[in-house]
Amino acid sequence: MGKIIFYEDTNFQGRSYECSSDCTDLHSYFSHCNSIRVESGCFMIYERPNYIGQQYFMKKGDYSDFHSWKGVSSSIRSCRIIPPYRGIYRLKLYEKADFNGNMMEFMDDCSSVSDRFHHRHVYSCKVMNGYWIFYEYPNYRGRQYFLKPGEYRRYRDWRATCSIVGSFRRITDF
Asked: Beta/gamma crystallin 'Greek key' domain: which residues (predicted)?
């Protein structure tokens, strides 16, 4: 499925830990994480246990320090493997909580939500198919949020700190 290796030091040095599945608490395996190698698959990594805090999408590749994955610190405490998906992608965005207000359906990436949806705020959404990443700012920048198929009645359901969604993309790099 996938394999990710966490290293305590930069440039793949120091104590390491290999992981091929979801892990709710990585703290017992290393005290901090300064480099990562993703040998296969895709993962979301989180700065706190239980998939909480800053999220980072990791695809196959070498990340020699936490800046290379746009990290703000060397604190990585949980990870989640993203299952491969090859079907049709479908996502519905709603202007208000509980699937109210204007709605728009998407099947592809969107570099500027405000240009296409005409709203900067997304208060709820439904992911019908595929795995997606929401970004805080346009052009796939800023905080990242992983969404799998399901209903998200409020932006806090995808662990966002506010309702602004600047861009989003499908996870297709398997």
From this structure: 2-40, 41-83, 130-172
Arithmetic mean of pLDDT over the chain: 94
**Burial class of residue 9 in the structure, from the number of CB atoms within 10 Å of its CB (0-12 exposed, 13-18 middle, 19+ buried):** middle
Quick: pLDDT tens for 53-68. 999 999 999 999 999 9
- Find the domain containing 33 and state its range: 3-82
Last residue of a domain, one of 43, 63, 82: 82
The count of domains in the chain is 2
pLDDT tens, 98-136? 999 999 999 999 999 999 988 889 999 999 999 999 999
